[in-house]
């Protein structure tokens, strides 16, 4: 969704009398400092976030993910024009920038954390690649797994390459991601980085995760351990990915969680096997990233969301 003066109105258009809108965000930043990085606007500017939240609170009803689950489980109608705010991945700015706004406006939000990102302040593969492209002086890139050579002379070239590699990774297997990242850094003559304290990369600390848990308007859910696409994993890998994430949350917060969201969340990114393993671990709600609205008859493991940022 474009972030501009029309964002509040665009979000309002998703509010409906009998349906529930779940909005998906990643991060909220104070300033856009990079040329290429954040070109997808995964991190929304604070000023747009504030205006959108203020507007939607005025025209709709904020409910928590737990309340949504309650309405579904009890077949009870939610308040009209209900909406849920969610954040994926676990960016530090969720607490330092977004939370004060949400608290002031009394808006509930769910933060789904990727435990390896939180535990080691790890960057996602695409943030690593965007970093390499942002800072490289190379004017072209040729990668053995992509058919064509890509020019990197202009911002437009760089974005074209990034869109291409995004699509390639999301439709290929998890195994190759680490290797793809290494190859990009080598080809772009950059030293590979795995962690960064830039506001686009910094993740929540466990202390901040605990702050979120004790905040009346925030909840914590899981979002895998290493952000691998769950449907691409073997049974053993899938179990390990889920168990590791739940164990780390339990060890660091003393809480058992019952909420989760699928990494990437498209229809090919989860399946019955994934849902079954989540249910075996007492997870009872897991939204997708497929665009749409929900009703009280929606399946809590197939909930749709509206990607804002
Ligand atoms: Zn994610």
Describe the structure.
The protein has 309 residues and is an alpha/beta fold. The chain folds into two domains: 7-122 and 203-307, Glycoside hydrolase/deacetylase (TIM Barrel); 125-187. The protein is 40% helix and 12% strand. The chain is built from eleven helices and ten strands. It has helices at residues 7-12, 46-59, 65-73, 93-105, 115-120, 125-135, 155-171, 177-187, 206-214, 235-253, 272-280; strands at 21-25, 27-29, 43-45, 61-62, 82-89, 109-113, 140-141, 150-151, 218-222, 306-307. Strands 1, 4, 5, 6, 9 and 10 form a six-stranded parallel beta sheet that branches. Strands 2-3 form a two-stranded parallel ribbon. Strands 7-8 form a two-stranded antiparallel ribbon. Helix 2 (46-59) runs parallel beside helix 4, helix 6 (125-135) runs parallel beside helix 8 (177-187) and helix 10 (235-253) runs parallel beside helix 11 (272-280). The chain is globular, with a radius of gyration of 19 Å. The N and C termini lie close together (7 Å). The model has no long low-confidence stretch (mean pLDDT 96). The protein binds zinc ion (ZN). Residues 88-89, 223, 227, 263 line the site of zinc ion (ZN).
List the topology elements.
Blueprint lengths: L6 H6 L8 E5 L1 E3 L13 E3 H14 L1 E2 L2 H9 L8 E8 L3 H13 L3 E5 L1 H6 L4 H11 L4 E2 L8 E2 L3 H17 L5 H11 L18 H9 L3 E5 L12 H19 L18 H9 L25 E2 L2
Parallel strand pairs: 1-5, 1-10, 2-3, 4-5, 5-6, 6-9
Antiparallel strand pairs: 7-8
Helix pairs in contact: 2-4, 6-8, 10-11
Bound molecules: zinc ion.
């Amino acid at each position: 969704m474009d972030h501009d003066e029309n964002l509040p109105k665009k979000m309002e258009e998703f509010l409906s009398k009998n349906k529930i809108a779940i909005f998906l965000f990643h991060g909220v930043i104070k300033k856009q400092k990079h040329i290429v990085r954040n070109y997808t606007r995964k991190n929304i500017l604070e000023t747009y976030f504030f205006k959108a939240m203020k507007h939607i609170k005025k025209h709709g009803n904020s409910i928590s993910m737990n309340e949504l689950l309650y309405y579904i489980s009890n077949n009870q109608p939610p308040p009209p024009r209900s909406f849920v705010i969610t954040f994926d991945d676990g960016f530090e700015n969720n607490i330092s920038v977004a939370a004060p706004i949400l608290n002031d406006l009394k808006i509930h939000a769910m933060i789904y954390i990727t435990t390896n990102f939180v535990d080691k302040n790890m960057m996602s593969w695409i943030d690593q690649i965007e970093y390499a492209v942002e800072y490289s002086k190379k004017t072209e890139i040729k990668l053995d797994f992509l058919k064509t050579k890509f020019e990197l002379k202009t911002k437009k070239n760089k974005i074209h390459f990034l869109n291409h590699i995004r699509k390639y990774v999301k439709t290929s297997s998890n195994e190759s991601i680490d290797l793809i990242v290494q190859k990009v850094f080598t080809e772009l003559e950059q030293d590979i980085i795995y962690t960064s304290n830039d506001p686009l990369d910094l993740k929540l600390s466990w202390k901040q995760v605990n702050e979120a848990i004790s905040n009346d308007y925030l909840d914590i859910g899981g979002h895998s351990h290493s952000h691998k696409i769950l449907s691409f994993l073997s049974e053993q890998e899938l179990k390990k990915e889920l168990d590791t994430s739940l164990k780390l949350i339990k060890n660091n917060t003393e809480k058992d969680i019952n909420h989760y969201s699928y990494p990437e969340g498209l229809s090919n990114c989860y399946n019955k096997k994934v849902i079954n393993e989540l249910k075996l671990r007492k997870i009872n709600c897991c939204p997708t990233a497929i665009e749409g609205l929900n009703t009280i008859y929606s399946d809590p493991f197939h909930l749709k969301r509206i990607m804002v940022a």
